[in-house]
Amino acid sequence: ETGVTQTPRHLVMGMTNKKSLKCEQHLGHNAMYWYKQSAKKPLELMFVYSLEERVENNSVPSRFSPECPNSSHLFLHLHTLQPEDSALYLCASSPGAGELFFGEGSRLTVL
Amino acid sequence: SQQGEEDPQALSIQEGENATMNCSYKTSINNLQWYRQNSGRGLVHLILIRSNEREKHSGRLRVTLDTSKKSSSLLITASRAADTASYFCATGRNTGTASKLTFGTGTRLQVTL
Q1: Set of chain B residues whose Cβ sits within 8 Å of the Cβ of A103
Q2: Alpha-carbon gap, residue A73 to A23, rounded angstroms
Q3: pLDDT tens-digit profile of B38-88?
Q4: Could you give the C-alpha distances from B52 to B8, B45, B64, B66, in angstroms and in order?
Q5: Which pLDDT band holds residue B95 (cuts at 50, 70, 90)?
Q6: Does the beta-carbon distance from B3 to A42 stay under 8 Å?
């Protein structure tokens, strides 16, 4: 148990659906992150939030929309995704600079 | 890109043997971190070494960093079957309030009985 909880753990959606991934951290950290992990590719940093402000957006398509309503919660809103967006989406938090604490991930399949 | 490249991509050893994984990167860094991932699970932080450090130990783990060669190595001594996992290096550049890590593709370690 890392103190970072992601829901749902598995999600199957059609290309026209709208869904959201949720991440909650119970560690009192100031920074939260979304990473994408696809088979045979390095983890891709998607978004970084620090003190609830977005500080990094790595050219992620607009069909992915992050939301950070407070320092404990992070969402990734998904709409009109493509099959190539199927991946493991990992949320992480950190107390600032330094090590990241990851959740168990949300396995997304886009049909 | 600061992307780390791990070597080898896969490693199979017997229990009790040592496992060594290497990581190379391209640009200057603040720190380098190693993570472990069991299949289909989240990543777990193992060890962080700062750019001004050369070696660090944590239990059965030993990490070295050579900034002149832009490389690092992770040594797991006396391996156990439970060490079977993928291991990733990540290079860090800090913004002060967040840590932006760039990960490599990982080394898959298989430890057999």
Answers
A1: 42
A2: 6
A3: 998 999 999 999 999 999 999 999 999 999 999 999 999 999 999 999 999
A4: 26, 20, 11, 10
A5: low
A6: yes
